[in-house]
């Protein structure tokens, strides 16, 4: 037997095939690795994009995105146990620049009860996971891989939620182990897709698959069978799993997240920063303060009356749905010309492509139809459009 490796560079990516030749009868066997482009279902898997900022933000009871784009954090019915920020601590010599960092901020012993969950998770749209054929007899086997580094060794909980047809969800509870403290390790988890449950055809832009990295759950959840699909939403976590908030100053890092339609983990798919940012902007688009008095060309408009201005924003990319408006503080804005302060700001009308904002009650001597521009003129000021899941 002999082996020949063939590299292909045709198309959007490259693949490597190991061809084994049987010297007795001349038959060949080829195993092609999945290195083609767009294999990673996780946007911003390298944790490089952080439109909201890189600083550590303490997680409250409200579920939300606090730092690294597309990675959401939550603490059920509690607040302040850990923070989420972007870090430059990454696996050495593997081409990564950033990671997510979780840090314990308030120590709490592991309690009992299902309302004390600490979690970081990622969600995919239904229309993006249809290709997995989950919920049918042709369900594809997929592999989740990631790099993790933690100051606390032990077994950590991880689970997936598949949103099936007829509002029936399917759950896959599993785990991974950090073997050596403060050392980057790569973990791979292969999941055979659920073969029942169907695929939801409604609201294709809503959540179709959720992946959750558990940071600690109540002790009463340390029961049940792992590594199987179930319709029960009662979480199952491994016995004696790590409850990170009970360790003062504990840290946990995550990067190189990849979910692919493959029975084996392949090399992490690189995505240029500008493209990762573009993908993230489907869910969140933000303008920040640049310099005092700088005009935001995208938010030009006109006076609809002597005291009301309307300005317009063409979305950088088509957003997932009609977004909501976020901004820092009204005092961070003014209207040009003549630096007019604003007392309110709201969406007048919008869709997932175009947005019209308005501010009323302006004290101005401009006339109806005159040109105006909304500017951010204070350090720390921002305006954002949110279409997150």
Description of the molecule:
Helices cover 3% and strands 42% of the residues. With 389 residues, it is mainly beta. The longest helix is centred in the C-terminal third of the chain and has 8 residues, at 273-280. The protein starts with a strand and ends with a strand.
Which strand order do you get reading across the main beta sheet? 5-6-9-14-11-12-15
Head-to-tail CA distance between termini: 52 Å
Uncertain spans:
2-17
- Category by helix and strand content: mainly beta
Give the strand content.
Answer: 35-45%
Radius of gyration: 24 Å
What integer is the average pLDDT? Answer: 90
What form results from the Cα inertia axes?
globular
Major β-sheet, in short? 7 strands, antiparallel
The number of helical elements comes to 2
Q: H/E series, N to C?
A: EEEEEEEEEHEEEEEEEHEEEEEEEEEE
